[in-house]
Amino acid sequence: KLSDNGLWGVASNVDANDATQNNYPYLLDISKGTTLSLLSEAEKLSSPDCSANDITDDGKIVVGSHKGKPAICRIGDNGSVTWEYLPTPANIATPRGHISATTPDGSIMVGTVTNNSQNFDGGYQEHPVMWKNGELVALPNIPAGHSGYKLSRLIDISADGNVIIGGLHYIYPSEIQHYVYYVNEQKAEIIGTSDFFSTGSTITTACMS
User: Fold this and answer.
1) N or C terminus: which one in the chain shows less Cβ crowding within 10 Å?
2) Are 56 and 47 in contact (CB under 8 A)?
3) Could you tell me which of 141, 134, 126 has the C-alpha nearest to residue 184?
């Protein structure tokens, strides 16, 4: 993934010992053609479930996950790296997840928090989450998924922080849908249709209590 100004990139892969976990996150300096590992060698060997998914335009904040939880990595002027966890909804037990995208200035971030359940027959949940200046922000009328399942994730956000792309039912490939969420208008629209979600088919502040 490239920063919006094209000067920085991030990359990560699956862990060598456990393909269900992420590992080997790197920051890429496009102009210099150099890379910076965001984990020490010891951390890489410990299967930290860490990912790098997006980067701010100044190259100072990488967003992703660390130990399976939504986190940011701050890059110091000397190349130092410091991981910080962002808050997760209090009503989700043993939360896991990741930050998928950030605005160029790092003020708004979006991602997904899961409930860590391995029961994919109704027990597993995915909750769409947005952070503004490091704090959780409610997303009224965000789609949750059909048939009572909560399977909604946030994928990307526009540079101005107003338009979000989300996805539904990713654990069921034949049922995957995508939607656009307009932050200022607090409404969502399934891509490819003209139908807007009604209040009865959405969650309002389900992830933010």
Assistant:
1) C
2) no
3) 141
